[in-house]
Amino acid sequence: METKNIMIVGVGGQGSLLASKTLGYLLINEGYDVKVSEVHGMSQRGGSVVTYVRYGDKVYSPIIDEGEADVIVSFELLEAARWMKCLKEGGQIVTNTQQTDPMPVVMGAAEYPENLVEKMRAKGAKVDAIDCLSLAEEAGNIKAVNVVLLGRLSHYFDMSEESWIKALEANVPAKLLDINKKAFELGKNA
What we know:
The protein is of the alpha/beta class and 190 residues long. The chain has helices at residues 16-29, 77-83, 103-106, 116-122, 132-139, 145-153, 161-171, 177-189, and strands spanning 4-11, 33-36, 40-41, 48-56, 69-74, 87-96, 126-130. Strands 1, 2, 3, 4, 5, 6 and 7 form a 7-stranded mixed sheet that branches. Helix 1 (16-29) packs parallel to helix 6 (145-153) and helix 5 (132-139) packs across helix 6 (145-153). The longest helix has 14 residues, at 16-29. It starts with a strand and ends with a helix.
């Protein structure tokens, strides 16, 4: 199969590393060659972060260039809009509707853009936007936004739910597994 490209974007501290590690584990177990990049950006204190996950028969590089991402998974709306330039024509965005003010907004030098989902759709992106924070809270832990997103992302893969759960079991601490399984189901069924 040709190489597929997934970008996971967000703000430091939201769990993008666990999401990319879990996705990589899933894809390896499905028999794909997988490359996962390191996180770029300030992974702490609310800085913008991006992780690349590439998979296929043979993958030579972990980097995704502009216009090559099949899917962008975003923890925050503005990050989805910021990285949309990397989405290929007809690509899919799966995003949390949560808004985290970047520093210019916090300092009063800018305003958070309005109607981002509509603006991304107007530019041709397919956008699947859900309130992952509320669903994570319903699951029992607001830090489970990443797994809610993985649950939603599972709609765009032809892999069994059992495979996704196996990947969670391998990557989530045992004491948090029940919450994360619930978060996955809530995201999947949202």
